[in-house]
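#random but structural
TW: two for the price of one
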Amino acid sequence: MVITLSSSPPIPSFCGLKTLFSSNPRSLSKPRTRLNFLKPKQDKGLNLQRNHNYNTNFGRESRSYRCNLSGFDLGGLEGPQSVIEAAGVLTAIIVVHESGHFLAAYLQGIHVSKFAVGFGPILAKFNANNVEYSLRAFPLGGFVGFPDNDPDSDIPVDDVNLLKNRPIFDRILVVSAGVIANIVFAFIIIFVQIVSVGLPVQEAFPGVLVPDVRPFSAASRDGLLPGDVILSVNGFELSKTGPKTVTEVVDVIKTSPRKYVLLGIHRGGAEPGGQDFAIKVTPDESYDGTGKIGVQLSPNVSIRKVKPDNIVQAFNFTGKEFWGLTSNVLDSLKQTFLNFSQSAEKVSGPVAIIAVGAEVARSNIDGLYQFAAILNINLAVINLLPLPALDGGTLALILIEAARGGKKLPLEVEQQIMSSGITLVLFLGVYLIIRDTLNLDFFKEML
């Protein structure tokens, strides 16, 4: 999202391109609330699917929602309804962000000339109260435009209601209002989820669940079935579920190519007909010499929905969940900067975000609540970064002005800083759209 001053460099706030929804097995924390965001086949948590023909999937059990979209199966655009739902969520979040900027200006009497969703060529538009509302071609965010330096505007350049002529505090309020709107919207979404659906609470059980078994794999050949629970490995019992439990099974399999592994199995769930027995599975040898058996693994948990007893408890649940999601977003951003070379490929554009959202909508409609909440929080955090083309970059320029005693930087300098940032973001956005589109299954099949 971007705030623009007509015929001058934009004061930006861009739609965050770093998605933060994933099921990363190594980042499981408090085993309190979990949602099923990704189907098992799509989790690349330990990056084992590609190399070892099996992976671990935490899906709804993972408390961290960092989405490793570089390895993500973007075949998730099947089914128009789920795609429309995901696109609707992303569009609503963009509109909320821009509405924050717009309302902060409008309520202060500041002149506004444009309100746009998307960038580039105009697809549709209408005018009302001297404001042009438009839908544009590239869904990379949006912008609110101000006529501050518009040569075609009839407003005098010294008009006190032009944004550039307002006091520093007024401008800070306008620029930061988009972030504030997203934070408030995220809190409302979580509150509605808790009141209407309930708070998902996880109960952990011993062992590791096998959600899926690949046909013709070592696991299938030796008798392992989807739904089985691995209770022990080579005689060692597994504790209650957790990242270490899944990793223990993974490590044993990887270090045992062509050597049988004795798995203690429970089959049949909690029903009376359930049975415990042992299976000898002989992992195949992968190209890198490690073992693989062709299964997906996840913690053995059950999820129940807890509804609040009263409005006070509802706000209490909402506050805890909101802070938990915010902490995960901040942690993911921190890890991105600390390990940029490994995490840069996880930056994703609107196509990948919609693919994830569509998968969420198909697998668990309740998950759309947290999908929307996390997108809002992600957008708010990303836009606060003091970088050109982000709200934080504009705030940084205003704070520099304040530090200089109200003396602004030369207009040419501001234009150069912001224009370069916007250009970089647009190029990045187009690149991500092309890359993520080519990662869709039907494009892969065509290629």
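TW: number two ↓
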Amino acid sequence: MNTLLVLLSVTPGGPGTLVARPIHFEILGIAEFGGKPRRWAWSPGFLVPRAQAIVCALDRKFTDLIKRNNVSLPYKESPITCTSTLRKSSYDQYAVSCPIIATESGNVYILDPPTLTILHQSNVCRKEATPFIMTSVGIFDVEYRIIIGCREKLICVLRRGWLEGKVIVQLINNIIDIIVVPGDNFIMVATENQMLTCYTKRGVDTRP
């Protein structure tokens, strides 16, 4: 959860009115992982559109924005960057699968097939990373892994019950495609330098 702290300077306006002006902004990012809060650096991308409007508002519009939005719930729009599926409870060919959605802000959502409600939500990794391709192995109700390729040349893995993924491979070249070999669960990665590299499920390069 991200919190926008705004320090206001309140001065007399017209008769019986006060004028509030923002003089300091700070973003606090609180993460529950490991029970330790984290402080993130300032970035406009951390803010929902309403908070961005407040930060950029002129003095004469700032008070109006505060009054107009003080009762509405905040929300943040993030485009979907890639999708995949994960088997729900069976390996059967015709068994139902859970849709998986990843967003530009690095969130991964596993959805319930009939209702499309969120079954599980997690982050790609601790770094700022944008997923653009992902594949999955396993069963949601038992054990699973979601392998995610990011624009920042990272390969991350998410396992059952994790709230945050782990970076297992840091590449030099951009990722073109990722597949997981059935059975052995080797990760095959194609990169822009026309190389096809095989990694174990722990991210170890299998080349001698």
